[in-house]
Write a structure and sequence with these properties.
Radius of gyration: 27 Å
Largest sheet: 7 strands, antiparallel
Number of helices: 11
Structural class: alpha+beta
Order of helices and strands: EHHHEEEEEEHEEEHHEHHHEEEHEEH
Number of strands: 16
Length: about 425
Amino acid sequence: MQLRYAFRLEPTPAQQVLLARTFGCARVVFNDALALRRAAYTANEPWIGAGDLSKIVLTQGKKRTERAWLGGVSSVVLQQSLRDLESAYSAFFDSRSGKRKGPRVGPPSFKSRKDKRQSVRFTANARWKITGAGRLVLPKIGELKVRWSRTLPITPSTVTVIKDAAGRFFASFIIETDPDTDAQRWPVEDVAGRETGLDMGLTHFAVLDSGEKIASPRFLRRAEKNLRKLQRRHSRKQKGSRNKEKARRALARQHAKVADARHHFHHELSSRLVREHQAVYVETLNVKGMARGNLAKSIHDAGWSSFLTMLEYKAARYGRVFQRVGRSFPSSQRCSVCHRIDGPKPLNVRTWTCSGCGTVHDRDTNAADNTLQEGRRLHTLNLKVAEGYRGDPKRLRSDGKTRGVRSRHGAVKQEATESPTHHRATKRHSTG
């Protein structure tokens, strides 16, 4: 598994000038290549290949007076900029043909010198290195001071230098993890049989089936007062002035603090859940759809998608089970004891009594318990399918047995472990 390790850089003022020049050269090469491709398409000329594009933009471009300054930066950075353009076109074509999953990707667009986030990539051909003193040596830039927060497990082959909107510099490395080392760090045997189901929310960030409720930190809400003050200060500055840029950076730094705090919270919670459980079951959330309503700011502040992505890759890294439950599953409407579905309930109803068995449920804990049961069933189904199971997936229980046995007269005999009203209730409220 590949992971990204990012470390803060502390370049000197002279090195910041050299990095700005490198960012600018990479941007110009990207825009020149994109302009050639667009011009050829408009004139109905043949497609310009990557090799010809490199010759025109780099080899011949450096000989022209208006592009002679491209020789002042590492050529590897410029080649990587052309590769980024190739990747952007590949994503666009794959999206149009249906080969690429997810939302449709548009064609590449020109990069602006006003973009607040910039990056360049150095490969092994650039002969960059990390010195014994912990300095990062980049060609035609020099030795950069790095804040090492942890040790790199292996020597990476590439490094990406990033400047964010707040003016901070980072060195990003792609590391290939060792499965044996990961297995020894968090052994699966230590948490054998421990499973948990999660119900995500806004009042509580997550509720476990055990009844534990994790409070929502609400980082953005807590910083809103300071953000409003900085935003007003920024809007009152004269456009194009130095004070306007200073106010913008101050506002960007405050936003970066909020994002970093949320990122840290997600990492801590996801690591804890994966470390303490063998299997984690979660609900599939339509974050994009929910973020169109009145609760958009709170939903974005929670960062559910980022958190679930962390859970998924950490579970895969340490040999845990991670299973998503479908959106149509009525986790908040079903009784986790008798499986009767009592229909949808308003959000202000936090506790309810099942009309079938009389059990009093906490809304969130009951939903987490239902997510655990359904996630366990889906995971068992996946294992059965991998082993060659050819039956109806909807009739497979979490213990691997079928829910009912059809007799020769066509009647379905319910097993004793299930409520006889479960299937009728499911059909009656299937739209909830």
